[in-house]
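note to self: the first set is below, dont mix up w the second
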Amino acid sequence: MADGTMTVDQKKDPYLLDPAMVKEPPKSWRGGLRFLGPGMITSAAVVGSGELLTATTLGAEVGFMLFWLVFVSTFVKVWVQVELARWSISTGKVAITGYNDVPPKIAGRGWMAWLVLLMFLQFLIGQAGVIGAGALAFSTLLPIGGDPFSTTSIGVWVLILVVIAIAIHVANRYKLVESISTVLVVLVTAFAVVMVFLVQFTEFQWSVADVSDGLRFQVSAGSMGVALSMFGMTGVGAGEITAYTYWCVEKGYAAWTGPNDGSEAWVRRARGWIRVMKLDAWVAWVVYTISTAALYMLGAAVLHPQPELRPEGPEVMGVISNIFTSTVGQWGGTVFLVGAGVALFKTIIANVPSLGRQVGNTLSVFGAFDWTDMRQRDRWMRVIMVVLPITWGLLAVAVQAPLTLVVIAGILNSLFLMGVAIATLYLSRTETDPRVKDGKPFMVLLVISAFAIFAVGFIGLTDI
């Protein structure tokens, strides 16, 4: 690389396709590894909320029976994620700007733009549940005021987490988000794997036969609600698929590709940076699938045999922690609470800027400001990234039922996924240059992915 940079210069606007910013893509997958990053932010947003709460809860309800769903729920959505990011790199646009192009129009705006407004409710509920659960984990570990379940202790910890989240993102810098996300993802993935193998030294050992049985396609009718939530919240959800386009642009994939001038040089660059993006997306998939599988196994092995101890409400952190404390010692419970708290808070760290961009872009679509103006965009993002964690924290303290909030948000997220699947197919067909597509086999997998997402979303709609 001529300048050796791994991201776009922060003084330049990555949302502007300037021919002066064009850069040739790496020619090998090893070279491509140097330019990964957006997927780590996505993994940071994914690994924590859905995995630690809904995946563990589903394992607790049905044991290893639905272990296969872990791999289906993470794998099936990647194809939509990749195709939407392909469109973003080839056009330089980001998701919500594209959603507004999807017909039919309602009052001058695309119907998906109106759906995103509705999904602000899902963003609010889901992240309030995550920050509440994170505060509860730290409160259980280090209560303030005596009772770890008291409003005072939880409220103080929520305040601490909110202040940290705001302080980290006040600079609004992509590189900072990527660096912190990468470190936390590695730590949390290691934590999940260690806790699963730590179970082997307790009375709740799992066996290869348990895992094999869980990989057989089978369904438990009584667990449909949590299963739907798990599909919506594990792996990349609608919010993460949408946010991934912003991170791909801010990393530089679109700017380095440059504006589509119709030349073969542009096609070569576009295909090269899309190839890097796909490597990034699949590396992230491996990471969050490992974490999801580990946390599901934790619920199936430890909580399923003890129906009286299955987590519900504010006890979700304490129940699992106490099991490790009683079986392997105080240090086991402490490790779990620290890991759980970091995993949940990591989701907030990633989602403050991710949702900040989505909220800002949506407001711009409805005329609040000019998204193409870098100064206005940055100013709006900074304000939103202060308002969001404060709002989440207030709701978390008021409700104090993190699992309930996350389950509701998961079902709503399944509905949003329906819209994202439809929008991705439309934008791929109408706006993505055919010369940068991957051919019929990929399109078949994309359609299967979109159909599965739509089907689960429809089931979620009928069950609400």
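second set (the one i keep forgetting abt)
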Amino acid sequence: MSRSAHPAGPRYADVLPEGRSASSTAPPADLNALDPRVWARTVARGADGIVTVGGISVQRLAEEFGTPGFFLDEDDFRQRCRAWRDAFGPDADVFYAGKAFLSRAIVRWLHEEGLNLDVCSGGELATALDAGMPAERIALHGNNKSTEEITRAVEAGVGRIVVDSFQEIVRVAHIAQGLGRRQPVQIRVTVGVEAHTHEFIATAHEDQKFGLALAGGQAAEAVRRALKLDGLELIGIHSHIGSQIFDMAGFEVSARRVVQLLAEVRDEHGVELPEIDLGGGLGIAYTSDDDPREPHEIATALHDIVTRECNAAGLAVPRISVEPGRAIVGPTAFTLYEVGTVKELTGLRTYVSVDGGMSDNIRTALYDADYSVALVSRSSTAEPMLSRVVGKHCESGDIIVRDAFLPADVAPGDLLAVPATGAYCRSMASNYNHALRPPVVAVREGEARVIVRRETEEDLLRLDVG
């Protein structure tokens, strides 16, 4: 890789990002170190300074598969599946949230590791069924499922449909009756919990599109209607309070309110619903400042909360479901980029442009998300340089990492990697500026294979019927 000389950008002492304190933007002691909380399990920097994953160097990956690309540590993914499965045990259900990232390979791994799958569109359902996930281990979500999506789900025999409105209760019942089925459903409720997260990914306050509110009695009315319809088997209540959550206090309040609803259902209808789903949204470490909970801690906390509340209400403890997506796949992948230009803005920062951008990671622009970044094609002893890693798109908001410290000698041709991009990056990728969406490459024990290929210009033109 060539490393042409360029003027060094501003150092830490020269400038701080807007709204940041010195303590939160201090450069790391060692720019070559890789925080294991942020990177996939098999990622390491060799003695030559080059980073490897699954025993394969990033240089080899770049040469064979190109950049940008998503490189996924398969062993890490499988180990995280097992950790969640084992933490919750045989008396609970773990549904991987397919919206985080889904492919046929992922479905097969989930099946092999004993996890269930949550889908929220016809395309995700088609992928799940095509890859062999048993239908009874699939849950269908969504706030506005089409008739076609519901019909396909009922025909396939999915284990549950999470209904999201009064209209959908009737719609699912009508379709199930027409097919001679009795479809298991859960009712999604909004519990009024304000998760400490971005406004657009908080999902349990009343003023948003998901679910039926406990406040005002909508949820209780939904239960009444579902219990009266022959085409439905009401198996439980579903709650989801948001995403990228570290504090378990919100789950405690949510669980308490869901159990209160179960008690009201028992008192009014003489029925004890057998299941509750407390959703997902558990956070991961995008930077060294993040401190996520381990699966066994989460499982213990949720079980204790539900058991305590049920005992107080005189209810049998229902079967618990959870829906981790990001918490499983997020840390297992990184995005590999090649540096194209390095531009110093005197007195401000240095802009490092790479060959991807908001077409492969929209989260920084959409959610103001924070990410880490590292120079991975070599080590460096240069001093830290305050940098902004940006993409190649025609948008000033095309930012991948807003504020980062990179070695001052970073140059065109270097490889940078952004960790923790396994969730909501490839799945939210776009063709903006007619960019070609990157491949996803699974790496395991010295072997790499494409599980989602890179798009080609022929793919783009094939859809353009002119």
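remember for set 2: Confidence is low (pLDDT under 50) at residues 1-24, 197-205.
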